[in-house]
Amino acid sequence: MRISAVSFGKIVAVSGKASKIRNLNACLKPYIDRERVRVIDITDNYINASSDGKMAKAAQKGEIIQAVISGKDVRRYKNKVPGWETLDRALSHLSEYHDINKVSKNTIMEKLYKSQEIIL
What we know:
This protein is an alpha+beta fold. It has six helices and four strands; from the N terminus they run βαβααβααβα.
């Protein structure tokens, strides 16, 4: 049995209306600039999905879905370490999903702060 390395990062999927996603991204910008966070639009991965999961439903309603990669996982993704070579492989490490239409951007930011995934 193969055991994955302990991750001190996090990948969170967030879906929502474009305006709410832009608002979240504005809050994340200082972290993106310092390479503490990477934001990737993954809407296309779910828009034609045959699944009836939450992210597929959001994409089919015209909402945006993005992956927020934080902490040490930013380096793992950037350097394409084993298990992180492609976006699909990176998404297999997804740890949370939030609908920003139902949860405030502050709640998402607090979760990232509390787990110390993003630090200025």
